[in-house]
Design brief:
The protein is mainly beta. It is 6% helix and 43% strand. The chain contains one helix and 13 strands. Strands 3, 4, 5, 6, 9 and 12 form a six-stranded antiparallel sheet that branches. A five-stranded mixed sheet has the order 1-2-7-11-10, with no helix packed on it. Strand 10 and strand 11 form a beta hairpin. The longest helix is centred in the last third of the chain and has 11 residues. The protein is globular, with a radius of gyration of 18 Å. The two termini are 24 Å apart.
């Protein structure tokens, strides 16, 4: 395969069902567990267990650690993403997190449903890269499920168009 891109973009290769957690705490070299996170989610079936401890001591050896499981499931015309409640010692992680769940390879969907929350407040829309995002606050002791019904996958750009675009950007 040939990859066409301009010099200002960095390609990210992710397998089906990949979940990539990123901190949104700013551009720091901070060791603290993030209160704001972005989860890059790719269609398919997959899971990711995020392990967290206090980042300073060896107390994880005594059980001072928490694990949060994230899962994505592609089922028919629905894409389901789950944030399971944290297991273990939740005192080492923030009690509430602001999540931005970024469905990177979904261009559109008919309906977004969020389940398992006391307040159904969330925002959604298209992100800069062409995918869909859902933003919400979640407590570490609750299960969250986000369902995208009737989703439309992002399509690869035509090779000819990609070459023309790359050449025109290089001028």
């Amino acid at each position: 395969y040939v990859l066409y891109r301009d010099l200002k973009s960095i390609p990210v290769f992710a397998k089906e069902g990949a979940i990539i957690p990123l901190s949104r705490n700013g551009f720091t070299n901070d060791w603290k567990n993030p209160e704001e996170m972005e989860l890059l989610v790719y269609r398919g079936n997959g899971s990711f267990n995020m392990y967290e401890d206090d980042g300073e001591t060896f107390n994880y050896e005594k059980g001072a650690r928490a694990v949060t499981c994230y899962k994505v499931l592609e089922s028919g015309s629905s894409l389901i993403f789950r944030i399971n409640k944290a297991q273990g010692d939740t005192s080492v992680i923030p009690g509430k997190r602001n999540y931005v769940i970024s469905f990177r390879d979904v261009a559109a969907c008919d309906e977004i449903t969020v389940r398992g929350r006391g307040s159904k407040k969330f925002t959604s829309g298209n992100n800069d890269e062409g995918g869909i995002f859902v933003q919400l606050d979640a407590s570490c002791d609750e299960n969250i499920e986000i369902e995208l019904k009737g989703y439309v996958p992002v399509k690869n750009q035509d090779k000819h168009d990609a070459v023309i675009e790359a050449i025109s950007k290089s001028q």
